[in-house]
């Protein structure tokens, strides 16, 4: 049954006011609309309205300046903020000033109505106090639908200590996201410590994480602090956690379960207070099936899964990213450059196997090597042709292009069994294989339908409740990406 309430809408766009009025009235809500912030404030101050929907940029006042007054006067009044300025900082400011939800324009009416109904049915706690200092930097770049969902999820995670598991291809910006979680979260006054599991010798990882006592092993001539101790009160970023050896995984699990650890060679337990953010470019479920990653550790660190989309799935962000990297180059003494519209189109069609890192390297090279102010499409084409790596391994190149799913699975199983030599894989292969196919299938359907569960359920031919259950069980991160 629809939750009924009085909705106050402030937006200087008459068309948006009309659409919202009609949509919300149709489901039983009483609606009042205004094109300015002053009228909205007068209604709120008079005690009117059960929920506010407001655009950020109003003719007479910015909604972010008004939100603290609203939250002070009526702390339990939910405020939904809309904005066409779809940046990471917009989502962060919405969260910091106490907005119930942030919606980038253009928005989905069905989603907005669901948010309104949920807000009216929930008891609201007092919003967090806004931060007074201004934020100048822009840690994440992009206005695509895929990045909007990332921003909104990050904004919700800022004021929590929940463990976040970031999954994404190399070069997508996993450490940038981890730093944003720290620098805009409530642990920002503490240290941010990053450790790359793939860059440390396996026999030194435990010492790096937990520290060691003098004489704990050959060469340990003095006591050394570990990353957990260095990150006390802050955030510990475990990059490429899929490369962590099993022994270290066992110790890490114990720390997460008990909140304490011992140094290598030590006996006294040390209490720890850190937020864990982990990242990987590997499929941890596959590693679990191969016996290379602990399943219980996976569920400990996968509290909030966050999938970063590859650049090819958000090609509309390339223009903003290029502008950003050219600006960075200017700050470092390089000449100002721009890329021709035709060149930008070529860049948007390129698959970017190295993702944002590859794009940054190309932009810096263009700024340094070419004297002309505008980089032509011919230059871009030549650079991209030289940049493009071979994307197939020798064994993959021997496979036909029209390989069926069954043939691909058969090829995979041949290599999988061969990896165990004369031994057999662990028991339970049937269920593991079904799970491995199910996850990418559900993810692909959600991506293709831009996060619309009704369309995805219809596409898959399953009940919507069944799809929701699968999303929850498989840990599929839903985001509304534009189709590549």
Name the beta content range: 5-15%
Separation, N- and C-terminal Cα atoms: 38 Å
Strand order of the largest sheet: 2-1-3-4-5
Mean pLDDT metric = 84
How would you describe this structure to a colleague?
By secondary structure, the protein is of the alpha/beta class. 45% of the residues lie in helices and 12% in strands. The protein has 21 helices and 14 strands. Helix 4 links the parallel strand 4 and strand 5. Helix 20 (453-460) packs across helix 21. The chain starts with 5 loop residues before the first strand and ends in a 10-residue tail after the last helix. It comes from Mesorhizobium liriopis.
What is the element layout, followed by pairings?
Layout: E1 6-10, H1 14-26, E2 30-34, H2 37-45, E3 51-55, H3 63-73, E4 79-83, H4 88-96, E5 101-104, H5 109-121, H6 145-157, E6 164-167, H7 174-183, E7 192-196, H8 205-210, H9 227-230, E8 235-239, H10 246-258, E9 260-261, E10 270-271, E11 275-280, H11 284-289, H12 295-301, E12 304-307, H13 318-331, E13 338-339, H14 341-349, H15 355-369, E14 374-375, H16 377-387, H17 394-397, H18 405-418, H19 429-448, H20 453-460, H21 464-474
Parallel strand pairs: 1-2, 1-3, 3-4, 4-5, 6-11, 6-12, 7-8, 8-11, 13-14
Antiparallel strand pairs: 9-10
For this entry, give a set of tags:
single chain, 484 residues, alpha/beta, Rossmann fold, Helicase, Ruva Protein, domain 3, five-stranded parallel β-sheet, 21 helices, activator
């Amino acid at each position: 049954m629809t939750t009924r309430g009085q909705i106050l809408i402030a937006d200087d766009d008459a068309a948006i006011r009309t659409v919202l009025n009609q949509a919300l009235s149709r489901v039983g809500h009483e609606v009042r609309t205004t094109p300015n912030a002053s009228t909205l404030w007068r209604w709120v101050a008079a005690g009117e309205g059960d929920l506010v929907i407001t655009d950020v940029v109003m003719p007479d006042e910015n909604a972010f300046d008004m939100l603290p007054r609203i939250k002070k006067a009526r702390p339990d009044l939910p405020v939904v903020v809309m904005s066409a300025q779809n940046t990471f900082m917009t989502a962060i400011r919405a969260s910091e000033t106490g907005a119930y939800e942030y919606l980038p324009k253009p928005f989905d009416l069905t989603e907005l109505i669901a948010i309104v109904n949920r807000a009216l049915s929930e008891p609201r706690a007092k919003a967090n106090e806004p931060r007074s200092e201004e934020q100048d930097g822009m840690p994440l770049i992009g206005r695509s639908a895929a990045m909007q969902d990332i921003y909104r999820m990050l904004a919700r995670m800022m004021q929590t200590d929940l463990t976040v598991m970031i999954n994404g291809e190399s070069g997508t910006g996993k450490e940038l996201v981890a730093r944003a979680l720290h620098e805009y979260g409530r642990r920002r006054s503490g240290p941010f410590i990053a450790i790359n599991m793939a860059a440390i010798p396996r026999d030194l990882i435990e010492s790096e994480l937990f520290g060691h006592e003098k004489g704990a092993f050959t060469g340990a001539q003095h006591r050394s602090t570990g990353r957990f101790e260095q990150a006390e009160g802050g955030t510990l970023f475990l990059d490429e956690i899929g490369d962590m050896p099993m022994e270290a995984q066992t110790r890490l699990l114990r720390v997460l379960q008990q909140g304490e650890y011992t140094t290598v060679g030590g006996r006294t337990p040390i209490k720890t207070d850190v937020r864990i953010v982990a990242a990987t470019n590997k499929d941890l479920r596959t590693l679990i099936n191969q016996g290379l990653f602990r399943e219980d550790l996976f569920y400990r660190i996968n509290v909030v899964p966050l999938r970063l989309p590859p650049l090819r799935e958000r090609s509309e962000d390339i223009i903003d990213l290029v502008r950003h990297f050219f600006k960075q180059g200017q700050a470092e003494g390089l000449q100002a450059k721009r890329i021709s519209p035709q060149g930008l189109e070529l860049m948007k069609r390129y698959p970017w196997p190295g993702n944002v890192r590859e794009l940054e390297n190309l932009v810096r090279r263009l700024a340094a090597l070419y004297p002309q102010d505008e980089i032509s499409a011919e230059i871009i084409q030549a650079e991209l042709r030289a940049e493009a790596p071979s994307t197939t391994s020798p064994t993959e190149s021997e496979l036909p292009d029209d390989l069926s799913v069954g043939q691909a699975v058969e090829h995979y199983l041949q290599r999988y069994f061969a990896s165990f030599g004369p031994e057999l894989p662990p028991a339970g292969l049937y269920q593991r294989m079904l799970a491995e196919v199910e996850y990418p299938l559900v993810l692909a359907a959600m991506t293709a339908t831009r996060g619309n569960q009704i369309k995805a359920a219809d596409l898959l031919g399953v009940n919507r409740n069944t799809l929701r259950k699968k999303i929850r069980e498989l840990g599929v991160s839903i985001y509304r990406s534009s189709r590549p």
